[in-house]
Design goal:
Layout (H helix, E strand, L loop, with lengths): L6 E5 L2 H11 L6 E6 L4 H16 L3 E5 L7 H15 L2 E4 L5 H7 L6 E5 L4 H10 L15 H16 L7 E6 L11 E4 L3 H6 L5 E8 L11 H15 L1 E5 L6 H11 L2 E3 L5 H7 L2 E7 L4 H8 L6 E5 L14 H10 L5 E3 L9
Parallel strand pairs: 1-2, 1-4, 2-3, 4-5, 5-6, 6-7, 8-9, 8-11, 9-10, 11-12, 12-13
Helix pairs in contact: 1-2, 4-6, 8-9, 10-11
């Protein structure tokens, strides 16, 4: 049986796998990445493409149907036990994932690395510094029975992700880090691998819009969102809308009918799509990860990234009380972007 690799990584999304490649780029190592495959087709398709790129970099990729039925997690974890117990370093992409938290409870690795899972990394670091429970920012209200059941495991994961004399913890991130707990190593992700492998892109004269899953997560009202997209498309002469992998098909169909935008479902993370090109001279986004990552991936090009703030009136009645502050922080800390003020009917009270 193959011995455990020096470094064992777990990813659940295409962006996590992209950032793992960025982390591994400067210093090649004995690395095996385990893909804990999600169920939605778009994420799976992007992960398949990213897995091909990882194998091209000499990385061993192990694909696990980790959610294929009630017995799948037990089967997956059972098969991973020798690797978990033998690896010296564990790399994860989502410290909020219950799957990952369970895996962390099994490993004895002395070195842990967290690679970016988008803006959630900002929330993770702030919660770790404040010694708060690991909770996603868009969650609202009291914890349910499942949350209470998994609470001890979440607490154990937070302890394991806290640096100590026996354990090093690194965060590899393109996100701004203001306050980090003592001992945490923060390594800057400047998308060197992406810029070395792709581009520079051909730049068109039009603009492109970047979609978000804020409607799907219950944060933003769908009618307000579609009206805002239509307003941005008219103002910036946008022709394409790059859909987030979690956006609902019926919402995208409505967007196309009401705005005339070409809906593009990317087969790779947007940082790679933009770097390959063709891409619009202006990329307009709502507060999201890409307002931090695209300026890095497109460094040296003439592409301009603009971000439109979320107007408080767009939020749903069930949105988390933390939503507005968190989204404003995502925008306010972004570098090298143009800030756009919400305007038009979507912002009318």
């Amino acid at each position: 049986m193959k011995s455990a690799p020096a470094t064992l990584a777990f990813v659940e999304s295409p962006v996590q796998l992209l950032n793992l490649l960025e982390w591994a780029h400067p210093t090649p190592t004995d690395l095996t990445v385990v893909v804990l495959s999600p169920l939605d087709p778009m994420s799976r398709g992007q992960l398949r493409r990213m897995a091909e790129l990882a194998r091209g970099e000499g990385i061993t990729v192990r694909w696990e149907e980790a959610r294929g039925g009630a017995a799948a997690p037990f089967r997956t974890i059972g098969g991973l036990l020798p690797l978990l117990r033998g690896a010296g370093r564990i790399v994860i992409g989502d410290p909020f994932s219950r799957y990952v938290q369970l895996l962390l409870s099994i490993t004895g690795a002395r070195d842990l690395t967290v690679v970016d899972d988008g803006t959630a990394t900002m929330e993770f670091i702030s919660q770790l510094a404040a010694r708060q429970p690991l909770t996603r920012w868009h969650r609202r209200g009291r914890r349910g029975p499942r949350d209470l059941l998994f609470a001890p495991m979440s607490s154990a994961a937070r302890r394991r992700l806290t640096p100590s004399r026996r354990r090093t913890v690194e965060v590899f991130s393109a996100m701004p880090v203001d306050t980090a707990p003592p001992g945490l190593t923060v390594t800057r992700n400047d998308f060197a691998w992406t810029r070395a492998r792709f581009g520079p892109p051909r730049i068109t004269r039009t603009a492109d819009l970047v979609g978000t899953s804020l409607v799907e997560t219950g944060v933003v009202d769908p009618d307000r969102y579609i009206t805002a997209v239509a307003s941005l498309a008219r103002t910036h002469h946008a022709t394409r809308y790059f859909a987030h992998r979690r956006e609902a098909t019926d919402k995208l169909h409505r967007l196309h009918l009401e705005t005339g935008l070409e809906i593009v479902r990317p087969d790779l993370p947007l940082e790679l799509i933009a770097r390959r090109g063709p891409i619009g001279r202006t990329i307009v986004s709502f507060p999201s990860t890409v307002v931090h990552t695209l300026p890095l991936a497109l460094a040296g090009t003439e592409v301009r990234v603009a971000v439109c703030d979320i107007d408080p009136v767009w939020l749903t009645a069930t949105a988390s009380p933390r939503a507005q502050g968190f989204l404003a922080g995502v925008t306010g800390t972004a570098r090298d972007v143009q800030r756009l003020t919400p305007m038009g009917p979507a912002s009318a009270a």
